[in-house]
UniProtKB/TrEMBL annotation:
Keywords: Glycosyltransferase, Transferase. This is Uracil phosphoribosyltransferase-domain-containing protein. CDD domains: PRTases_typeI (cd06223). One of its GO terms (molecular function) is glycosyltransferase activity. SUPFAM superfamilies: HAD-like (SSF56784), P-loop containing nucleoside triphosphate hydrolases (SSF52540), PRTase-like (SSF53271). Coiled coil: none annotated. One of its GO terms (cellular component) is cytoplasm. Gene3D superfamilies: 3.40.50.2020, HAD superfamily/HAD-like, P-loop containing nucleotide triphosphate hydrolases.
Amino acid sequence: MSSEADQSLTTATVEIPTTPKPIVVGIYGLPGSGKSTVLEHLKKSLPSDMFAVYEGSAVIASLMGPDRGLDDFHALSDEEKTRYRKLAITQIRDECQKSGLVGVVAGHYMFWPRGSEHGTVVWTKADQDTFTHIFYLQLAAETLCCRRQRDQVRKREAVTPGHLHKWQEEEMRQLDALAKDSGIRFVGLDGAKFVGISSLVSEISKRLHESRTESEHCNHVRLLATVDGMVASVTACGDTKVTTALVFDADKTLTAKDTGREFWKRESSRTRRIGQQAPTPAEEIFREHGYTYEAFRQVAMSYSNVEGFEELCNNVAEKVTLYPEFLSLLRRVKKHGHVMAVVVTCGLRRVWELVMEKQDLGRHVRVIGNGDICEKHIITAKSREAVVNRLRGPPYNLHVVAFGDSPLDLPMLQAADEGVIVVGEELSRSKSMEDALSIAIEQLNTNGSPHNLCQALIPHNVAPRLDNAQLPVVDLSDPTNPFNQSLFGSLPSSLLHASNRPSAKLLMTPTRDANISGPALREAHRRIGWYLATEFITSLIGLEEYSIPHVQGHATTGHRLLREQDTTIVALMRGGEPMAFGVNEAFSLAMFLHAKTPEDVKPHHLSNQHTIILVDSVVNNGKTVLEFRERIRGMDEGKDIHVVVVAGVVQVEATGVEHELGRLLRRDGKLHLVALRVSENKFTGRGGTDTGNRLFGTDSDVHVPR
């Protein structure tokens, strides 16, 4: 993420409301500026199935009752007038909420009689809470003075151009300040730029139509439609079903550069508008308003005012060099039809499209991002989180791995199955990320939930964030390591195995020796169970401290599995029993259960449990594991029990993305598979080669040493 979006952020996200705030546009200006005339033209020209046009004073008059009107309203006390004004704007808001129409309301902000030192504000808190836009009709004081004098319909107080100028300036200043505080979009319409009423009405009409599609809710709906289209296009391009999505932030993640700052630096070199270290227009907006939807819209409007926008984007893209690790990763996407890659950036979409085209990745890496106000989307931190949730959820159910570098990326990273924090050089990395990470991890630990975050160091010798225990390091530079293999469907990262370790080779030898069966083989399986429990399950679930007596007579600290007494070990009968005994030896406080079928696992076996360990000797196609997991999840209302499957051997095919077990291992953050070794051998034992028969000597072909 660029430095334009680098400040401490809360990691909590706000859901877009199912019933969004209605769009209500206020037409404001001094008395005589033409509000009523504009409103009459809008009533005739705007589609009635899209817009509802209101004259504020007429709504107030209608609220006075059938036998009263505006004259009666003017006779009320100031307190009563305020009450009716609030009732009027609230009624307009409620009608627009119910109908779904955009409300257009002409009203007054303040009155300033001749001779008064200050104007009287008649705007209410209800107005401030209702309006989403304000279009202000701004006229030269002399022009306004002439209009007021020639008005044949209304008798207006005679005031000087100087008084009108002061009134208009103060009214615009106050409205602009209120708009910024309330997230209202304030637009000044300079009457000198329009020839006649028709051109002014045409401009207002155009802006009103734009307002219908610029709400955060509409933006959210368009964004999800774009994601749907991307998945459909990736699917149409290949014969393989898409099962994995890689979602990337751009600036400071894929490259060390901040393309947003580079854009404004190049723009300023032409206009001499900002210095080398001065804040860019985008940075100034974010500092004043934070990273809100409206702030990103304002940044988009600032891009719209830049001449030669496309040329500048080209110039910036030419200078972008991707990190080699990510360039290699993205090029691998071209060769794997089941993996799609999406760059979702709060920066400039066009720059990143050009960067991908330069690397011949344009057809394989989709880009969603910001740009000028004519762009299809406004991308915020919430937007990026929504992209990940869309890809992970129905109907796609993809395994999503997200990459980012700053606090603005955290909602996206935490929403993914795996979130990779890219850690660059200390001088250029996000300054606020360390604290944001600590808070996020601490909140999860408090809730007893494991986090899905790890870190990638680029280059590999930079100092990590936090420490390796809190935030494990993954190596993106080695395509053969387990993490990189898991991205492209070779092995899921939730599979832990000891296949190539010397200790595993010793432990597996008796299990492969045809001369060993019966008690000796059961003992070999027991040792494997104990080894896998102590080597892998302890790192997955964690440890807790407790007091033990020291041999020298004082108390000292011992360690055991986290919430060991709230752990259930399920021996999948019959082949899993010997290995399960070894797991139980490591975790002696755990409950032990024999299960021939999933129905043998009862609700009371799961009640208040933290971890369920399913133990089987071999996982071939994963069918048995899936049945037991479905049974457990069906009774686990909170879906927060850790399920760890322990096996001596796992067939690698069962963990692939084309198999249900493989997809679940990539999607269910609380399902892990621990194995002594992973095998590509598809052989399934029968008779004397069946593991259960060898363990218990139950087939006549089993050779039992004498």
